[in-house]
Amino acid sequence: MTERTLTTRELNRALLARQFLLERSSLPMVATIERIGGLQTQYAPSGYIGLWSRMRNFRRDALTEALHQRRVIQGTLLRSTIHMVSASDYWLYLAAIRQARQDWWRRVTRHQISELDMEAAVGALREQLAKGPRRADELRGILAERGMPPFAFGGVAQWLEMVRVPPSGTWEQRRADLYGIAEAWIRPAAHDEPAGLEHLIRRYLGAFGPASVREIADWGGIPHTKLVPVLERMSLRHFRDEKGKELIDLPRAPLPDADSPAPVRFLPTWDATLLVHARRTQILPEKYRPLVFNSRTPHSVPTFLIDGAVAGTWRVEHDRVELQPFEPIPKSVRPEVDEEAQRLAAFFR
To answer: Less packed terminus of the chain by CB within 10 Å, N or C?
Structure first.
């Protein structure tokens, strides 16, 4: 059977629908976070803005409460970056990425730090964290006292599962520098690597698909070869993009019509829809990519979408959302842009 070819615009609308950027989610907040593959939160407010853009009637304090109640967990996960995910997703994601992260660490530090040194560092921090949450500077100081180089802290995080403990890493206290042991913060759950990888695949395709195997791997920060044996056991749909490259997808995932209207949406910094793994959808036109991701803006910039594509950046100034469009905003859509900007400004107050 000939595989259906999906146009770039069809892939764009599929991404928007799965990210609740075509129609806002009416699901509970935790379920919404799971469906969109988690929230990338190197900058803590990004998670709040991301949910405001994707949910009906989202309240800022709802996410902070979920973090305190341990229904949402913030930790270093996909691509070794900070993410907010559900408590159940946390252990499954870890099962998928743990071995790959440790293998990577061993490769890049094999001439700088020994396995025994790393075991000692992990043991020292585990002992401290068993007494309760500790600040990052305090943990780094413990390693320094043992003669460990500054980069050792990043290595410890590959072996010692640590979470960011609220109120750090929230809208109210944005620096996510208070750490706790995950197994003490939430009930541990044992999953093997294949189960974790299948879960990661399903979460990615449900949030960003249809996609290639390498795009899934790039999002997870793991070698694509790890996914191949798991994919062979899964029942998936197969498509092609306009260049003939194979795409895979979940059996009943939404594929909206290419002409589906896309409302104006505002996205935070580091929104995962704009990263390289989703490049195929052209939600971020290539001509604008250097304006969003470059050496002068290492934390990226917040953006707004018109007709499903980035059309400019925004910032909050004096209780107003100021727009910096890359090209003149069409008169036909200007009222919608202004209305959404006013709603976002109210969310900040």
So the answer is: N
d(CA 312, CA 112): 43
Question: Phi, psi (5° rounding) for residue 255?
Answer: -130, 85
Cα–Cα distance for residue pair 252/241, rounded to 1 Å: 18
Please give the Cα distance from 133 to 114 (Å, whole number). Answer: 27
Eight-state DSSP code of residue 297: B
Cα 249 from Cα 239, distance rounded (Å)? 8
Q: How far is CA 52 from the centre of its chain?
A: 15
Distance (Å, rounded) from C-alpha 5 to C-alpha 128? 55
- CA 171 from chain centre, in angstroms, equals 17
* Run of H or E including 34: helix 29-35
Of 193, 191, 192, nearest to 223 by C-alpha is 193
Q: How far apart are CA 248 and CA 198, in angstroms?
A: 13
Separation of alpha carbons 295 and 6, rounded Å: 34
Strands, E, within 151-258: which ranges?
162-164, 178-181, 237-240, 246-249
Number of other CB atoms surrounding residue 262 within 10 Å: 19
- Which letter does DSSP use for residue 223 in this model? -
The reported pTM is 0.95
Burial class (CB in 10 A: 0-12, 13-18, 19+), 80: middle
For 137-165, what is the mean pLDDT? 88
CA distances for 72 relative to 39, 129, 169, 185, angstroms: 10, 20, 12, 11
Rounded distance between C-alpha atoms, residue 315 and residue 259, angstroms: 30
Q: How far apart are CA 92 and CA 317, in angstroms?
A: 40
Backbone phi and psi for residue 135, each to the nearest 5 degrees, phi listed first: -75, 155
Q: How far apart are CA 123 and CA 85, in angstroms?
A: 26
* Phi/psi of residue 134, nearest 5 degrees: -135, 150
Write out the two tokens for 133: 């949450």
pLDDT tens-digit map of 174-210: 999 999 999 999 999 989 999 999 999 999 999 999 9
